Amino acid sequence: MKLLFFFLxxxxxxxxxxxxxxxxxxxxxxxxKPNDIVLTWTTFNDTQGSYATFGKEQLTDQVSGYSTLFxxxxxxxxxxxxxxxxxxxxxxxxxxxxNVGSEFGMSERFSFHVPPKGNDIKVRAAIYGDMGNKxxxxxxxxxxxxxxxxxxxxxxxxxxxxxxxxxxARVGDQFMRQIQPIASLVPYMTCPGNHEExxxxxxxxxxxxxxxxxxxxxxxxxxxxxxFVSISTEYYYFFQWGARMLFEQFAWLQEDLTNANxxxxxxxxxxxxxxxxxPMYCSNSDDIDCSFEYTRRGIPFIGLSLEPLLKQYGVxxxxxxxxxxxxxSWPLYDGKVYxxxxxxxxxxxxAPVHIVTGSAGCQENHxxxxxxxxxxxxxxxxxxxxxxxxxxxxxxxxxxxxxEQGGKVVDRFRLVKDRHxxxxxx
Length: 426
Hints:
Radius of gyration: 21 Å
Helix content: 10-25%
Distance between the termini: 68 Å
Strand content: 25-35%
Number of strands: 26
Largest sheet: 7 strands, mixed
Shape: globular
Number of helices: 8
Structural class: alpha+beta
C-alpha cells in the first residue's frame, strides 16, 4: 500500500516513450557515514525521475534522488543519464533489499549488508587495480566471493575498463555492467588512475559516487578500526587540466591526516590505510615510474612530496596499483627498510608498508620485474590476482590470491602494532 500510494502521488502516468529507460550498471558506495549507502545507476534516456525502493525483507520504503546528464567527450558526444539516490541512516549490521529506477522501469532486486556499528568490528576488503573489460582474470573469483558475503567493501585502485572513454564510452558501459554483480552487493570504493585521464577524467567523475564532494577524485571514510584515504596520484602527471587541484588535494590531505591523528580519533580508529594509483616504489622493468615517482619525491621546483606525510602522520599501509603485478615491501621510508625486528619485521615497524596490487587482469597483460629484486622488496609475483584485507583493532592481515593457480593464496602477512602515530627517525 505504501509503494502504491507513492507512485499514485506522482500524478497521472505519462505516456510511455522511453525506450532506453531501464536501469543498468547499478553500483553502491558508502556515503558520509558507513550506514549511508549511495546507489548509482545509468539510463540512456531521461526518465524525469530517480527512485529507489528498499527494505529489510520487502521493498517497503522509497527514496527519491536525481539524475545528471553526462555527455562523453568523444566524437559522437554520447549522452548518458547517471542517477543517484542516498539511503541515509540505515540500521547497522542489517541486510537490505533494494531496486532502482523510475516509473518507466525498475531494476531487478539487489541486496547489501550494512556493516556493524563501532570501531571494534572486523573489516574485510577486496583490493585490486587495473581491471579491464577484456582479460579480467580475477573478475569471476571476485564475483563468487562477493556473492558468498566475503567482503564488506571493495577498493579498486585506479584503471577501469581500458578504457571507459573508448568507443564513445561504450567500453565504460560494458565494464560497469561487468562489475554490477560485485558492485551492487558491496560498496565499491575507487580512486582514479592514468587510464581515466581522457577529457579531464570525465567518465570516472561522472560514473562513481564517492563521499566528500570532490567528484570522487580524493576523499576519506571511516569503517571499523580503519581510516581509509583515497587520493589522485594523477594530479602529479596531467598538468594540461591545471594545477589547482594538486594544491587543493595536498592541503586537504594534510588536514585529513591531522584530524585522523587527533588522540581521540586515533584511539578509536588506530589504522590509517591510504590508496593511490601510481606507486612510490616498484621493481618492474617496463615502466619509468619505477625509477622516478613524483608523489614520492615531489615535482621539480614545486615540491608537494607525499612521502613525508606518511611518516609525519603515521600512515600504516599504502596501497598502489598501475603495475600489472603484485609486490609487497618491507616497512619502508625514503628507500630504507625499518623492520620491527629481524624475526618479526611487521610487528611495531618503523615505517609504512607499501603494497602494489594491479594484477586483476586487463588487455595489457602482465608487468615484468627486473631480474634483481631490491632489498626493500619482500615478495613479488607477476601472476594475475587480487588482495584480501582483514582489519581488526589489533592487526591488519593481508593475503594475495593467485587466480592463475585457481585462487591459491601465494602471499600473506600480518601487521601488528601496539602504538600508532608518527614514525620517529632521522
